Amino acid sequence: MTGERTWRAGGCHCGAVRFEAELEPVVEAQTCNCSMCAKTGFVHVIVPESRFRLTQGSDALTTYTFNTGVARHLFCSVCGVKAFYRPRSNPDGWSVNARCLDDAEGLDVRIEAFDGRNWEANAHSLAHLSREDQ
Questions:
Q1: Would you kindly state where each structural domain of the chain is located, as residue ranges?
Q2: pLDDT by residue, tens only, the chain of 134 residues
């Protein structure tokens, strides 16, 4: 899945929070059936730390944690949208919501199901996504 990466902008519904993620032309994404993702409709695109930048709205973010407290679910305090977060499976990277990208034109987003209800048995399958060589 390598190719020329491009920075893609995105953000929350109201525009208070903005981000950019550097993405390959072919993007591996996951839908998850865990209690959090199933309720929010989050489509995960996990990127390394170096391929994510918050460009606006750090002061508008609010954090929600549960269970182990490792994942940092970040929501816009104005509109409530979670455009990205620090995932438990990849605490060295970021999970961007593909649905919050401004423009996905030219991206081949390949969405696979991830069994987050059985997270402990399956999380290892996501670990490679935040590596710099991906």
A1: 6-130
A2: 457 999 999 999 999 999 999 999 999 999 999 888 899 899 999 999 999 999 999 999 999 988 887 779 999 999 999 999 998 888 999 999 999 999 988 899 999 999 989 988 888 898 888 888 75
Question: Nearest 5°: CA angle at 49, between 46 and 105?
Answer: 50
Q: How far is CA 120 from the centre of its chain?
A: 19
Q: Which of 24, 10, 19 is nearest to 129 (CA)?
A: 24
C-alpha to C-alpha distance for 22 and 65, rounded to whole angstroms:
26
DSSP 11: E
Tokens linked to 94: 């970021």
Q: How many Cβ atoms are within 10 Å of 111's Cβ, its own excluded?
A: 14
Q: What is the pTM of this model?
A: 0.89
CATH topology of domain 6-130: 2.170.150
C-alpha to C-alpha distance for 10 and 6, rounded to whole angstroms: 13
